[in-house]
Design a protein that fits this description.
Distance between the termini of chain A: 59 Å
Largest interface: A-B, 118 and 105 residues
Radius of gyration of chain A: 22 Å
Number of helices of chain A: 11
Number of helices of chain B: 13
Shape of chain A: globular
Largest sheet of chain A: 2 strands, antiparallel
Largest sheet of chain B: none
Structural class of chain A: mainly alpha
Order of helices and strands of chain A: HHHHHHHHEEHHH
Shape of chain B: elongated
Strand content of chain B: under 5%
Oligomer: heterodimer
Helix content of chain A: over 70%
C-alpha cells in the first residue's frame, strides 16, 4: 500500500518514543490509572504521525492508549514498540488487539522486568556501592551510575525489537487477525482476573472487638473465598460505572470517601 | 556550621531530582548511596555522606515500589541526616543520624502518597482534555506530574532544613497523634483505588461474553496463589487453545497435511 510507505516511522521516531517513555511513563502515575497517562504521553506524538489525516482514528487510538496500564518501566518498552508497530500497519483495525495485548503482557513483563531491573541489578550494584561507601570510597556509586547508563541502552533496543515484532505479527498473520484479537483479549481477561486479588489491597480488621469478644473478620471472609473483598469492590465499581451519569472521576471520589470511612470505623486496616 | 540558603535549596533540589530520576531515566540519583555522595559534596562532608547513604541504601537493597506501593523515603532521609550531621558541629555522629533518618523516611512516605493522590487529579484533567480532543493540552497536563512528585520531596526537605531538628520531631508527633485517622484512611483508600482502573479496563474487554476467563484468572491467584507471571502463562496456553479451535486448520498442521497427502498419493499409484 502506498499509504503505509508514506507513514513509515523512522528509527529516529522509535528512539524518540523510547526516550519519551523513559521520561514520561510515571510522571503522572496515580492510584486509579497508574501508567496509563504515561502511555498516552509517550505514544501521542508517534500516533499523531500514524493517524496523520485521520482524526477519528487518532481519537480511538488515544482512548486505547489511556486504558489502565501498569508494568515494569524497563520491559514495557517492548510492549510499547509492539503496539506502535501494529498500529502503524493496521491503524485502528488492531486497537482491540492492542488493548488485549497491553493487558495480557503487562503482568508477565512486570514479573521479568521487576526481578531483573528492580531486584537483581540493584542488589548486586547496590551492595558493592554501599560497602565501598561505608569505607569512604565513592567508586562503587560511580560504577552503579555507569551500569544504569548501559541499562538505558538496553531499554532503547527493547523498543525497536518490539516494534519490528509488532509489524511482523500484523503483516504475516493479517488473515487470522480477528482470531488473534480474540485470543489476546482472553489472555487479557485472565490476567485482569488475576490482578484483582494481587493489586487491590483491602484487608479486613482481624481483631475487631464485639463487646469482649475479638472477631477476625479477615479470616471469616477468607473462609468464604480468598480475595472476596477485592472482588466485592470490583463488582461494586463495575456496577457503578455502568450507571447513568457515572464517570471514573466520580468513582475515584466515592472510593476515597469509602476508604476513609471504612478506615475510621476500623473495618478495613 | 549553619547551612546557607543556597545549600538548603541545593539539597531540596537533590531530593526532587532523586524521585524524578527514579521515575524517569534511573541514572542513579534515586539511590541513597549516590544521594549521600552528592549531599556530602554540597555540605562539604563526603565521608559522612557516603557512610549515611551507604548504610541507608543497604536497608532497602533490591526493594522496589511495585504495583504502586509507597516505601519509606530514605532518599530524603539521607539528605536530611547528612545536613543534620554537618550542622551539628560534631555533636551528632553518623550512626545516630542514620537512626534519625529512618523515622524521617517513614514520615515522608506520606508525602509520596499525597503526590500520588494529586496525580489522580491530573488524570482527571487529562481525560477531560482528551474527551474534548485537545490532545496537546492533555500532553501538557501530564507534565504537571513533575511538580507534584518534585514538590513532594522539595517542600518537606526545604522546610525541615529551614526549621531544623526540633521541627521534625514536633511534626512527627503531631501527625501521629492528631491526624493519624486521615493518614490511615488515605492509605486504605489508596489500596482500593486500583479498582477504578481495573473496572474501566473491564469495560474495554469482552467481559459479558467471556467473564469466566476473568474468574479463572482470579481463582488461580485467590486459591492457588499462582504469581501473576504464572497466571499469564496459563492464560497464554488457553489463548493458544482458543486460537487453534477458532482457526479450522492451524498453520503448522496444514503443512503436515500436505506432506501426508503426497505420501498417500504415492501409495495410491
Amino acid at each position: 500500500m502506498m499509504n503505509t510507505t508514506n507513514n513509515k516511522l523512522s528509527e529516529q521516531d522509535i528512539r524518540k518514543l523510547s526516550i519519551r517513555w523513559m521520561a514520561l511513563s510515571q510522571v503522572s502515575w496515580s492510584y486509579n490509572k497508574m501508567m496509563a497517562p504515561g502511555y498516552f504521553a509517550a505514544t501521542y506524538p508517534t500516533l499523531k504521525k500514524i493517524y496523520k489525516d485521520d482524526p477519528e482514528g487518532l481519537r480511538e487510538s488515544i482512548n486505547t492508549s489511556l486504558i489502565f496500564f501498569n508494568s515494569n518501566p524497563h520491559t514495557s518498552h517492548a510492549i510499547l514498540g509492539m503496539t506502535i508497530g501494529m498500529e502503524e500497519v493496521k491503524k485502528q483495525e488492531v486497537l482491540e488487539t492492542v488493548a488485549g495485548l497491553k493487558t495480557g503482557l503487562m503482568g508477565p513483563f512486570a514479573g521479568i522486568g521487576d526481578s531483573v531491573f528492580g531486584v537483581i541489578i540493584p542488589t548486586i550494584m547496590g551492595s558493592i556501592a554501599a560497602y565501598m561507601a561505608i569505607d569512604g570510597n565513592a567508586l562503587g556509586a560511580i560504577l552503579w551510575i555507569i551500569a544504569n547508563i548501559i541499562v538505558i541502552g538496553v531499554r532503547m533496543k527493547l523498543t525497536l525489537i518490539g516494534y519490528n515484532l509488532g509489524e511482523k505479527i500484523v503483516t504475516m498473520y493479517s488473515d487470522i487477525l480477528s482470531k488473534f484479537t480474540n485470543s489476546a483479549m482472553i489472555l487479557g481477561l485472565i490476567v485482569v482476573g488475576g490482578l484483582i486479588p494481587t493489586i487491590v489491597r483491602a484487608n479486613l480488621n482481624s481483631e475487631i472487638m464485639i463487646g469482649e469478644l475479638p472477631i477476625d473478620l479477615q479470616a471469616m471472609a477468607d473462609s468464604i473465598m480468598p480475595g472476596l473483598i477485592p472482588v466485592i469492590f470490583i463488582v461494586f465499581g463495575y456496577k457503578m460505572l455502568g450507571m447513568k451519569n457515572m464517570t471514573s472521576t466520580k468513582l475515584i471520589f466515592i472510593i476515597i470517601i469509602l476508604g476513609i470511612v471504612l478506615g475510621l470505623t476500623n473495618i478495613l486496616v | 556550621m549553619e547551612l546557607s540558603i543556597i545549600q538548603i535549596l541545593l539539597l531540596s533540589l537533590l531530593g526532587a531530582c532523586a524521585i524524578l530520576d527514579s521515575l524517569m531515566f534511573q541514572v542513579g540519583f534515586s539511590r541513597c548511596v549516590v544521594i549521600g555522595l552528592i549531599a556530602g559534596l554540597i555540605v562539604g562532608d563526603v565521608t559522612s555522606g557516603l557512610y549515611i547513604g551507604g548504610t541507608l541504601g543497604l536497608l532497602i537493597l533490591g526493594v522496589g515500589t511495585y504495583g504502586g506501593a509507597s516505601m519509606p523515603d530514605y532518599q530524603s532521609g539521607t539528605i536530611i541526616a547528612v545536613a543534620l550531621v554537618a550542622t551539628s558541629g560534631g555533636s551528632l555522629d553518623v550512626q545516630t543520624a542514620v537512626a534519625l533518618a529512618v523515622p524521617v523516611g517513614l514520615l515522608l512516605l506520606n508525602f509520596d502518597i499525597l503526590a500520588r493522590y494529586c496525580n489522580s487529579y491530573i488524570v482527571i484533567l487529562i481525560e477531560k482534555a482528551v474527551a474534548l480532543e485537545k490532545y496537546d493540552l492533555a500532553y501538557k497536563y501530564n507534565l504537571l506530574g513533575f511538580l507534584t512528585w518534585g514538590g513532594s520531596r522539595f517542600i518537606p526537605i526545604f522546610l525541615a532544613l529551614l526549621l531544623g531538628n526540633a521541627f521534625i520531631e514536633d511534626a512527627l508527633d503531631f501527625l501521629t497523634t492528631n491526624a493519624s485517622w486521615l493518614l490511615d484512611g488515605l492509605a486504605i483508600a489508596g489500596g482500593i483505588l486500583p479498582v477504578v482502573g481495573i473496572c474501566v479496563l473491564l469495560k474495554y474487554l469482552p467481559v459479558k461474553q467471556y467473564y469466566y476467563f476473568a474468574i479463572l484468572g482470579f481463582l488461580l491467584v485467590a486459591y492457588l496463589n499462582v504469581p501473576i507471571m504464572g497466571v499469564a502463562l496459563f492464560g497464554l496456553v488457553i489463548a493458544v487453545i482458543t486460537f487453534n479451535a477458532n482457526t479450522n486448520q492451524p498453520a503448522s498442521v496444514i503443512g503436515v497435511d500436505v506432506i501426508e497427502e503426497g505420501d498417500y498419493d504415492e501409495y495410491d499409484e
